[in-house]
Structures are given as structure tokens and as C-alpha cells.
């Protein structure tokens, strides 16, 4: 997600060119005629959406193509981080300590946001920490040019053209300075990394100065984040989830984000608090996830975990938000930290694993190098057929059993 930076008064007519952030020479897949055609299309869109003449005459003609943006859009990561590596890079002692300091510094604001929106203070601070390291890095790509580049690329033209129109509307509505609007290469902006549509839909003028500034106003950014989470359906008074311990003979086929059960059922199955003790008595469902397989930590996750995943559709990200929030509140480290994982796994290796599963009759779907729910289900079925612990995790043991050489597909 994301947001950005404003003009102080009215929109100036003598705008400087929006210079590209990247200057290196790369093969340009969008020719000048294509960009010209895109600008003509955006002029029509801007007119239909009621954007003013200054925007149409001054901003759209100055939009520039950034080769580096498409490079980043096309570049799929060669290696995937394991859960342990992902978590350890994000939930660090430094980030925990900084979060605790900011929790105290902004206590009055955060108390009010929890009261008004139902989102806990530590959750808001954790999002802030994960998105921009508490505002220390907001991104350096010019937002309008990034959106224009992606909007003129046929792969996701409709989505990014709409986001470009939203961004231009924000310039008008909130008197944002186009020169100062910088963020991620994908157009996400501000302390909480809102895309323009989310800025427009969920942005809140928290400090009451008459404008929504997600770059320079921490109050606006955190208030907007609280509003966004509330609108997504955050359940006030409910946790995101918790680390649990499992009985020695646990059936890992019951795990998975898509297999929720009542807490009372998990209790009956022998699931307990990680540090010991019974689960709470509460009338709601939870799903069990084991992000590092049976040798790593296990978590029961609730509805608010799904809300975090609507912010960023990644279980590792959502766990990092929840665990960072807990540590900021003084919780102890994980009882069962990830261990014994592969350091990193390439997409080529995952693709080889998927191909091998499919060849053996375990449907992993189209081999794409991404270990999603279908791949995990196929691994689980394969493990069960071989008498292995069916946790659905792509461990070194699974690669070996499938005959996929981890030393090759790198």
C-alpha cells in the first residue's frame, strides 16, 4: 500500500518536467508513439473523470517513461526467502526497540485511534515498521511517472491507468506537489505505502489541517491506516493469532489457512499455548499454519490475520506484522523459532519440484516456481503416500524424496 507529498498552496502552473529517476540505458519496450497514444487516452480519461484543465494541460504531457520500473515489474525474484530468514530480517531487536519508543512517543494519538477505530496501537506501529521502517525510507521513484510507465504497459494497463487518474485527482484535491510525490516503483506512497486508490478511499485528515498528507504527517498516515484496517473488517478486541504447540502425533493434514475450525475443536485435538496452558474459550474459528513445516513454529490465526493479508497477501508478511506487534508490546520471542530450513530456494527448484509432483500424479497445478496452496496440498499428499509427516512443506527431505537435486536448479 502507499501515499505522498503536497504543494503548500494552489497548484502552480509552471511545473518543472517530471524527470525520470533512472537514467541507465535499457531496451525500451514502449516506443514514443505508444507513450503518445497513452497520453491521448489518459487525456480522455481525465476529461471523463472531471479532472481540471491544469492537470490535463500541464501534468499529463510531462509524464515520462521510466525503463527501470518495467525492469522491476518484470523481474521475478530468482530466490525465495524461507520463513525464518524473512522473519529474522523484519522482526529485529532494533525494529522492536524503535517501535516501543514510537509507541510511547505517539501514545496520545494511538490511544485515540484504538478508541475510534478499534485497531490496537501496537498493530498500527507494526504496519508502520514493516512498510517503511517507521518512515525512514518512503521510496525514491516519482509516483506519476511510475504509474504512467505501468499504465502504458499492456500487461496491467487498465489497473495502473486507473491508479494514475486517482493520483492526478489527489494532486488536485489535496494540493500535492507532483515533484515531491515519490514512493515505490509500483506507485505506493507515504509512511504506510498506500496506492492512490486507497489514499483516495481511506485517507483521513488526522491532524485537521484541511489536507491529507501521508508523507509529511505521521498523524494523517497512522489515522489513514487505522481507517483502512477498520474498513477491511478488523475485529476490535480480537488478536491476530498466537503461537501454539502441537501434540507429537498431530495430523498435519488439518493445517492450512483454508481449513479453519472452532477453537474448542483445536483444544480437543491437543493444541495448546506454545508456552503451555489451554487455549482461550471463545466462540470463533481459527486456522492452523506451519510456515516452516513441522520442525518450526505453529500458529493458530484468526479473522484479523486474514485482514492483515488483505493489506499484503503473504502469510510471512502477516505473521511478521503480528509478531512484531506482540514484541513491541513486550511479548517474549518465539518458543519454537524456525530451524533446519534451507537457506533459500530458487523458483527453478520449486518448478522442478512441481513438475516432479505432477509426473507422479500429485496435482501441483501449472509449474510456476511459486509454492502456493495447490503445491502445498500436492506435497502433503505425496508425503502421506510415503509415510512422511504430511505438513505440506518443501523441506530438503521432500526434495530428496522427489529426486530433485538442490545443487542443480540454481
UniProtKB/TrEMBL annotation:
Source superkingdom: Bacteria
Molecular function via GO: peptidoglycan lytic transglycosylase activity
Segments passing through the bilayer: none
Keyword Signal: yes
Alphabetical list of InterPro entries matching this protein: Lysozyme-like_dom_sf, MltB-like, MltB_2, Peptidoglycan-bd-like, PGBD-like_sf, PGBDSf, SLT_2
Domain Peptidoglycan binding-like intervals: 347-402
Keywords: Signal
Pfam family, one: SLT_2
Signal peptide from the UniProt entry: 1-27
Stretches assigned to the Transglycosylase SLT domain: 36-326
GO biological process, one term: peptidoglycan catabolic process
Stated name of the protein: Lytic murein transglycosylase
Organism: Oceanococcus atlanticus
